[in-house]
Task: inverse folding
């Protein structure tokens, strides 16, 4: 069965500093990859997705992620974070069985 | 506005009560989902509907009963719940199983 590992349960970072949120998945077949963001008291919102093509994917709010097939990773990055980026970030993988497999989430904590 | 609306946003119910959660999407999507989000756990997929037919039921207790009367509406009927059922219940929809899901804001359920 597929699994998704988000290595950090929370990541504290200073405002305007860069950040990387890590995501690894276990799969030997083609997958679709997603990052979602959940702001406090809200549902989940799609940040970006990888279906095929370029391995560097750009999303909303200045985030990007790189698909690395050999390392089965899909890490999320932003060069300069803002207070408004405080949220929980979820990585998810979908395969031909359609079910989204979710990571446990990473809380991004922005320090002023 | 995400296109997926859930009501109510908050619900407190006793263990002997019967209540229903409602989800509505105006995106013309064919698939709808119920998820359970508990603290410090990955998102749990509960039910999947495609074109109003249930295609997935992830070993959810029978005290949760879904209903999909048409492609725009999804209900989750609740009865004789337990305190451990307290969680955020998220509804989502997607065009099909290979595309991203759009989430509602969730219903925060507390069972007392």
Result:
């Amino acid at each position: 069965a597929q699994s998704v590992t988000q290595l950090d349960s929370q990541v504290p970072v200073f405002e305007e500093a860069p950040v990387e949120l890590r995501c690894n998945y276990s799969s030997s077949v083609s997958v679709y990859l997603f990052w979602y963001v959940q702001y406090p008291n809200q549902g989940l919102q799609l940040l970006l997705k990888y279906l095929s093509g370029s391995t560097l994917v750009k999303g909303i709010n200045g985030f990007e992620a790189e698909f690395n097939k050999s390392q089965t990773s899909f890490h999320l990055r932003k060069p300069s974070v803002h207070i408004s980026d405080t949220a929980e970030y979820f990585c998810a993988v979908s395969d031909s069985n359609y079910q989204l497999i979710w990571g446990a989430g990473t809380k991004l904590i922005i320090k002023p | 506005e995400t296109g997926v609306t859930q009501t109510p946003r908050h619900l407190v119910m006793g263990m002997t009560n019967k209540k229903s959660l409602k989800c509505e999407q105006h995106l013309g999507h064919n698939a709808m989902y119920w998820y359970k989000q508990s603290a410090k756990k990955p998102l749990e997929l509960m039910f999947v509907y495609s074109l109003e037919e249930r295609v997935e039921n992830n070993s959810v207790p029978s005290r949760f009963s879904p209903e999909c009367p048409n492609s725009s509406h999804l209900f989750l009927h609740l009865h004789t719940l337990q305190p451990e059922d307290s969680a955020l219940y998220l509804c989502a929809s997607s065009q099909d199983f290979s595309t991203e899901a759009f989430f509602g804001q969730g219903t925060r359920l507390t069972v007392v």
About this structure: Chain A has a mean pLDDT of 91. Chain A touches chain B at residues 4, 9, 32, 34, 36, 41-46, 49, 51, 90, 94, 98-100, 102-105 (CB under 8 Å). The longest strand of chain A covers residues 87-94.
